[in-house]
Amino acid sequence: MASPPRGLPISFIVLTLFTFLPNPATSLRTSFIKLPGSDGSRSSSAADTYCESWRLAAETNNAGTWDVIPSVCVDSVAGYLNGDQYGSDYGVIADYALAFAETVQVSGDGKDVWIFDIDETLLTNLDYYRAHGYGSEPFESNSFNEWVVGGTAPAFEASLRLYNALKKLGFTIVLLTGRDEHQRSVTETNLRDAGYSGWERLLLRGPEDQGKSATNYKSEQRSKLIEKGFKIRGNTGDQWSDLLGFAVADRSFKVPNPMYYIP
Amino acid sequence: MASPPRGLPISFIVLTLFTFLPNPATSLRTSFIKLPGSDGSRSSSAADTYCESWRLAAETNNAGTWDVIPSVCVDSVAGYLNGDQYGSDYGVIADYALAFAETVQVSGDGKDVWIFDIDETLLTNLDYYRAHGYGSEPFESNSFNEWVVGGTAPAFEASLRLYNALKKLGFTIVLLTGRDEHQRSVTETNLRDAGYSGWERLLLRGPEDQGKSATNYKSEQRSKLIEKGFKIRGNTGDQWSDLLGFAVADRSFKVPNPMYYIP
Fold first, then answer.
1. What beta strand segments (E) does B39-186 contain?
2. Which of A72, A170, B154, B198 has the greatest number of beta carbons closer than 10 A?
3. pLDDT (tens digit, 9 = 90+) per residue, B151-183?
């Protein structure tokens, strides 16, 4: 491994899948790092280890598409979400995002955009998911829409901090969400109640966006911004489909979400 | 948040940076998730929490380019690498990779390629890094090259298992490494001693590749494979620069490496 020069914009393609397979036997000619629980047993501690590995695989998009969290991991995911680690993970990512933002030469013409997703990015729906198995139950749109209409989702502290700091730096804030256009009013009210203000645009799924994958819908919306002369400097979302596709930001920040996956 | 249809290849651009900033004060109108240690104090437990967050930020490429691991995280990273979690994380990713590989229609003409990086992907240099502060010391090419020439790096169990399973499925294995061409012989011997065999090509940096970023060098090599009619189905590496850029694989798998970052 030589030490190469630094720094490059990069792109990445992934496909999707979720399965967990047993370990086939292997024959080795030398020592190797052993996996825990490779004899098939899974103690409580081994389950914790596995669930940490699953969460890392999900966050890095190694897991690809998945429908519900592994049933063995409900306690582990709940512990993560209800403990300090979840908020800490958000805070560290917000710090990296802000450090990057401070290096951007903001032109002052209002064309330097930072995009935020809403659900699990600006607002937390943890109270809803806490009552629905932390992502272990299949997504149920009726009850989730009821929750959205309730309009009581709180802000993430780290996201609000980042949001306000970006405004102060002169970025134009665009909110790009998979929520439907008919949820515009309740979404605006919820955002304001949670402490957010001063966004330039709130982009929701219109009738023409129905049936599109989140990756396509959001890429198209970013593309339209670029056509209008905006420069998408940064993008923050909890889903890879918020960040990937085409017309991507100069830099993208993936905040954690071990509860659901939207392709 | 509506529930969109599933499944899409996606691409992703990131830039790079590493800084850790203090939390500016924020004023809120409602409740939010609190970060631990936001008063500036950092107990041993808070340091652990931070270091877990740093590791996640590094693995997800949120941290961008970084030179050495945070000094406060040496114990945490050492604990991760020497404990069960590191091997478990590899194993789970290998399982996802294999599950994906089993869905690929391998044509039988030898054109379906799976690419592996070598260092920290097929072979572990943990013994070297254990003696050099687990990534807390700046990279020192002389001593690392001595280690490489020694040729004693063991295999990761999970990588060897994946490697052999992919061969059995009929994939053509290509090894693509940042090691220099003059290290070909010692690298081949080390790989064979560690249990690997039957690769189709071993691609190392030639004189014309010196000075190129890893992302560019590896993208160019993948591009040449595609020009020769190969289809790059999968790619496994410990660095984002193994996986991103252009001519990327149908699906890429990022194995963990909290010790160093190569752009």
1. 112-116, 155-156, 172-180
2. B154
3. 999 999 999 999 999 999 999 999 999 999 999
Phi-psi region of B120 (alpha: psi -120 to 50; beta: other; left: phi over 0): left
Q: Once rounded to an integer, what is the mean pLDDT over residues A171-191?
A: 98
First to last CA, chain A: 35
Cα–Cα distance for residue pair A139/A144, rounded to 1 Å: 8
**Least CB-CB distance to B85: which of A49, A165, A244?**
A49
Inform me whether the pLDDT recorded for A37 exceeds 80.
no
Residue A72 pLDDT > 50: yes
Q: Which residues contact A190 (CB under 8 A, 6 or more apart)?
A: A123, A148, A151, A152, A153
Which chain B positions have a beta carbon within 8 Å of A33's beta carbon?
86-87, 90, 124, 126, 154, 156-158
The reply to whether residue B23 touches residue A161, judged by beta carbons under 8 angstroms, is yes
Q: Do B32 and A251 touch (CB under 8 A)?
A: no
ipTM of the complex: 0.85
DSSP B74: H
Alpha-carbon separation of residue A58 from A66, A74, A190, B83 (angstroms): 8, 14, 28, 21
> What mean pLDDT is predicted for residues B211-219?
97
Nearest-CB residue to B17 (from A10, A99, A160):
A99
Could you give the C-alpha distances from B79 to A243, B51, B85, B86, B258, in angstroms and in order?
Answer: 32, 11, 9, 9, 11
Is CATH 3.40.50.150 correct for B44-254? no
